[in-house]
Amino acid sequence: MRKLISALSIYGLTLFDCVAAPPNSLTDNPLYSAAMAEGKVVIYSVTSRIHLIEELFERRYPGIDVSAFVLSSREQITRLRAEQRAGIRNADVLYLNDAAAALALAREGRALENFVPPRMRARIPGPLRQPLLSHRLSTKVLLYNAGTYPGAAPVANLWELTQPQWRRKVLMVDPASRSDYLDLLATFIRRSAALESAYRDHFGRAPELAAGVASVGEKFIRELFANELVLVANTERLNAAIGRRGQRRPPVGFGTYSDLRNNRTRGWALQIANEVNPAPGIVYPVVLVLARDAPHPAAARLLVDFMMGDDGADGGAALAPFFEPGEYITRVDIAAHPQSLSRTQLRAWEVDPQAVLPLRQRVFDLVLELQ
C-alpha cells in the first residue's frame, strides 16, 4: 500500500483521485487495488434498495464484501455517535435522508467526511455536492385520489386544507418521528411570504397573526392542526388511506411522489397535486457521506463512486434502483424519469438543509404543543 501511494504522489495524485475504472481495466485501478486489500465496506442506509446495490457492487468489484444495514437516518446518527464515542470504527458510508442532521454532525468536525468522486465534480451542481454530497432528491408533496377526482386535484390552494370541508381529511406522518416532515413544516415557515400571497388569493384579505404567532407559515401550521390534521404512523398507511379506489370522499395528504410507482401493484390511485397554490410541498436531498476515519477508506470511496452511476444516459445499473418517477438524480447529465414531471415542472419548494437546521427544534416543539 505504501508503495502504491508513493507511486501516485509522483504524479500529484492521491489514492482517492483514482476512481471507478472502465470494466476492462479493473486491475489498473489503484483505488480498486487498495479496496481489495481492505476486503470489505460497511454502509448504513435509509432504504432497503441498498441490498440491490450490494449485489451489483460485489459483482462489479469481486473481492470486496459489502455489509449493508438498513437504518433510519436517526438510527444511523445515533449508532455512529455511540460507536465513535466507544472508539469503535464500524461504518464506512452513510446514506441518509436527513441532510440537516447530517450537516449538524459534519459541523462537529469528527463524525462525517464529504467525498465527491472526481468524475462527478462537473456533473453535480455546487450546492448539491458541498457541504455534503446529494445522491438524489426526494419529496413530500400533497397527494390525492385521482380515481375519485380524475379531472384535477380537489384542492387548488393549501389554505383550503384549514377549512371545515377538510376537517379530519388531511393526513401526514407524525412530524415528531420523521425529519422529512419536520422539514416540510419548517419550509412552510421559511416560505411565509408565498403562503401570505396564497392566503390573499383565497380569502381576499391579508392574514392576521394572533399573539405569539411569529409568521404566516406558523399560522398555517397551527390552523392545519386546529382543523384536526390526522397523523399516521407511516407512509404506507397514508398512501392506502388516500389512494384506495372506490372511495366517495377520500382524504388528501402529504406523501412521497415516487410512491405513485405502487399504484398498479397496490390498487391505489395516488396522484400529485402539483398545481396547488403556492406549492405542493418540498423536494429535499438524500445525502451520501463517509464516516470520518472510516475503517475501509478506499472501499468506501469506491462504493460512493459506484452509487453515483456510470457514464450512460441513465447512469446504468447502479442508479436503476433510484431512477424512478418522482425521484430526481442530482447529476445534471441525467434527465428525470420519462414518466415523471421534470424537475422544472415540479413546483415543490427546494429544502435548504442549512436554512432549516436552525428551525428544527422550534418546529418540533410546536408540533408537540399542537398534538
Features:
ABC transporter substrate-binding protein, 371 residues, alpha/beta, D-Maltodextrin-Binding Protein, domain 2, disordered N terminus, 12 strands, signal, twelve-stranded mixed β-sheet, 34% helix, globular, 2 domains
Structure, explained:
- This is ABC transporter substrate-binding protein.
- Pfam families: SBP_bac_11.
- Keywords: Signal.
- It comes from Exilibacterium tricleocarpae.
- The structure is a single chain.
- With 371 residues, this protein is α/β, with parallel strands linked by helices.
- It has two domains: 2-136 and 285-340, 3-Layer(aba) Sandwich (D-Maltodextrin-Binding Protein, domain 2), CATH 3.40.190; 138-283 and 350-370, Periplasmic binding protein-like II (D-Maltodextrin-Binding Protein, domain 2), CATH 3.40.190.
- The chain is built from 13 helices and twelve strands.
- The chain has helices at 2-10, 30-38, 50-60, 73-85, 99-107, 179-190, 192-203, 216-226, 235-243, 263-266, 297-307, 353-356, 360-370, and strands at residues 40-45, 65-70, 93-96, 112-113, 134-145, 170-173, 230-232, 252-255, 270-272, 281-291, 328-329, 349-350.
- Strands 1, 2, 3, 4, 5, 6, 7, 8, 9, 10, 11 and 12 form a twelve-stranded mixed sheet that branches.
- Helix 2 (30-38) crosses helix 11 and helix 6 (179-190) crosses helix 8.
- It is globular and about 65 Å long.
Number of distinct beta strands: 12
At CATH level 2, the architecture of the largest domain is 3-Layer(aba) Sandwich
Roughly what is the average pLDDT, rounded to an integer?
Answer: 92
Highest CATH level, the class of the largest domain: Alpha Beta
Shape: globular
Q: How much strand content do the residues show?
A: 15-25%
| Unreliable segments of 5+ consecutive residues | 1-25
Q: In DSSP terms, counting alpha (H) and pi (I) runs of 4 or more, how many helices?
A: 13
Fourth-level CATH superfamily of the largest domain: Periplasmic binding protein-like II
Helicity, as a percent range:
25-40%
Instruction: Let me know the largest β-sheet.
Output: 12 strands, mixed
When the domains are counted, the total is: 2
Structural class: alpha/beta
C-alpha end-to-end distance: 57 Å
Q: Radius of gyration from the CA trace?
A: 22 Å
CATH topology of the largest domain, which one?
A: D-Maltodextrin-Binding Protein, domain 2
Give the H and E element order: HHEHEHEHEEEHHHEHEHEEHEEHH
